[in-house]
């Protein structure tokens, strides 16, 4: 799936490291302003309550924004394709199927009263388990194994969507309304303990990526070149895929599915970063992803006073952007 349109195979970065550092510093400054406005704008209740409530919401935005951005960047690195996202492997369809089966079996009342810890653990375990099982069955160290895994993921995604539709047809109107509410990501009702666990897992994956970021740069050259330069391509591909699955499962179980957000942030990173080194791109994508969610939530909720969820707006913009990429790739 390596494409000749990839920036790291077709052209060289135009910007120097110092220029990239300046851009990253500017993004961090914008992020600091956005976080400050998000926490302090239009405070009507007590400061203690407001900061606690908005602080929990801010942490969920930070974890989800960083996780999805990094996961998409890593997935495109190991696939060698800038159009694919981890969502193509059926994570969103699997998440919706889990919600549908839980509502169908427990009812709307049982689903609403279900322990958030049990629900989070169940969703994360199922998503991780399915993908790792497929990887164990299909990944045999050849260059095509990952491609087979992606194709099987697409097929299972269609299967999960069909099963979700089948079960949803058997729900009563109240149960169906609960299911529809769970189909879109929500950043406002995340349990603090789950945020702590998610933050710990994210920190562990970030430390691992810091150790292997130089090898990820070499993997951009392709399998044979990476092997010639001493990188265990198959092992690193499987490890990177595992980190990607962990980050996506973590964010999806935490707030819900956000399909096209990572694609949008990844391409903004390619355009603005000016470097194809993962030691630079990963922090850049992290800050950009967090900035997008925090500033978007601030504008949507505090300036425009819209009651719709931010994820719906992101999905619409990301979907249009995805269609534009497909059309441009077809013309190329």
Automatic annotation (TrEMBL):
Q: Where are the transmembrane segments?
A: 21-43, 55-75, 95-114, 120-139, 146-167, 187-210, 241-268, 280-300, 312-330
Q: Which UniProt keywords apply?
A: Cell membrane, Membrane, Transmembrane, Transmembrane helix, Transport
Which GO molecular-function terms appear in the entry?
Answer: transmembrane transporter activity
Q: Which GO terms describe its cellular component?
A: plasma membrane
Q: Where in the cell is it found?
A: Cell membrane
The membrane topology term of the UniProt record is: Multi-pass membrane protein
Q: What InterPro entries does UniProt report for this protein, alphabetically?
A: ABC_BtuC-like, ABC_transptr_permease_BtuC
Biological process according to GO:
siderophore-iron import into cell
Main subcellular location of this protein, as a coarse class? membrane
Q: Which family does it belong to?
A: Belongs to the binding-protein-dependent transport system permease family. FecCD subfamily.
User: What protein name does the entry list?
Assistant: Iron complex transport system permease protein
């Amino acid at each position: 799936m390596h494409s000749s349109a990839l920036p790291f195979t077709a052209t060289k970065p135009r910007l120097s490291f110092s220029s990239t550092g300046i851009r990253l510093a500017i993004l961090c400054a914008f992020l600091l302003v956005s976080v400050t406005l998000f926490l302090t704008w239009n405070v009507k209740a007590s400061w203690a309550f407001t900061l606690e409530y908005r602080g929990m919401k801010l942490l969920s935005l930070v974890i989800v924004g960083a996780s999805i951005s990094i996961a998409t960047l890593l997935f495109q690195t190991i696939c060698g394709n800038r159009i694919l996202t981890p969502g193509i492997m059926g994570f969103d369809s699997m998440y919706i199927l889990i919600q549908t089966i839980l509502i169908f079996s427990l009812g709307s009342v049982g689903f609403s009263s279900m322990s958030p810890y049990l629900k989070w653990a169940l969703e994360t375990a199922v998503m991780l388990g399915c993908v790792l099982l497929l990887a164990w069955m299909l990944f045999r160290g050849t260059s095509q194994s990952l491609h087979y895994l992606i194709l099987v993921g697409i097929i299972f995604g269609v299967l999960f969507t069909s099963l979700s539709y089948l079960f949803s047809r058997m729900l009563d109107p109240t149960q169906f309304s609960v299911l529809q509410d769970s189909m879109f990501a929500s950043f406002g009702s995340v349990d603090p303990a789950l945020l702590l666990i998610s933050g710990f897992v994210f920190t562990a994956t970030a430390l691992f990526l810091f150790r292997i970021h130089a090898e990820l740069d070499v993997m951009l050259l392709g399998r044979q070149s990476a092997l010639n330069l001493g990188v265990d391509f198959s092992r690193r591909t499987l490890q990177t895929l595992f980190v990607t699955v962990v980050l996506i499962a973590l964010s999806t179980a935490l707030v819900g599915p956000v399909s096209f957000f990572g694609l949008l942030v990844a391409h903004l990173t390619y355009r603005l970063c000016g470097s194809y080194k993962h030691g630079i791109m990963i922090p850049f994508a992290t800050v950009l992803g967090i900035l997008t969610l925090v500033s978007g939530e601030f504008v949507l909720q505090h300036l425009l006073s819209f009651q719709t969820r931010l994820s719906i707006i992101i999905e619409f913009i990301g979907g249009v952007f995805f269609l534009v990429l497909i059309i441009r790739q077809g013309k190329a």
